[in-house]
Specification:
Blueprint lengths: L1 E7 L6 E4 L10 H7 L2 E8 L10 H10 L2 E4 L7 H11 L1
Antiparallel strand pairs: 1-2, 1-3, 2-4
């Protein structure tokens, strides 16, 4: 399965995976508005590949069922809360 990957110029570390290059027909208009103008990154083959921040099986399933997959950055860890939790555990 091939897919095209685009990055958002509005949202850092946010990527959109679609089935066919430049075919955003399956992506909701509101998502495209929030995502901004997509910047093409690459076309990749998903079989036998691992992805850095996304589960390749979830990506393939989303592409089959919904027509797109949105990869958002992981949540930022609040270091103060982590420090307080570590201190309380000691």
């Amino acid at each position: 399965m091939l897919c095209s990957i685009y990055k958002s110029l509005k949202k850092d570390n946010t990527y959109l995976y679609i089935n066919k290059k430049d075919d955003f027909a399956d992506v909701p208009a509101q998502l495209m508005s929030t995502f901004g103008k997509p910047q093409f990154v690459m076309v990749i083959k998903l079989e036998g590949r691992t992805l850095a921040l996304a589960d390749v099986e979830k990506v393939k399933e989303a592409l089959r069922t919904v027509g797109f997959y949105l990869q958002v950055p992981p949540p930022v860890t609040n270091l103060l809360d982590q420090y307080k939790a570590d201190k309380a555990a000691k």
